[in-house]
User: Fold this.
Amino acid sequence: MMHADDSRLQALRARAYALAESGRFNGAHAVEQALIAEGWPNAGAALQSSYTRKAISERCMAATKAH
Assistant:
């Protein structure tokens, strides 16, 4: 069961990074809301880490500058 949970968290974070890099979002909160809308009910818990939220925000900023 632990392995399945880890796999889900990894998949969720990978999706969060992909959304952040799309250039459509301005920060971690917007990405979190998009994940919830896509049906990831545990998005908030998965993105609790300040490191993860910072990485998502940085990817959002970089993508916004690139587009």
About this structure: DSSP finds four helices and no strands in the chain. The CA atoms of residues 27 and 57 lie 5 Å apart. The chain has one domain: 2-66.
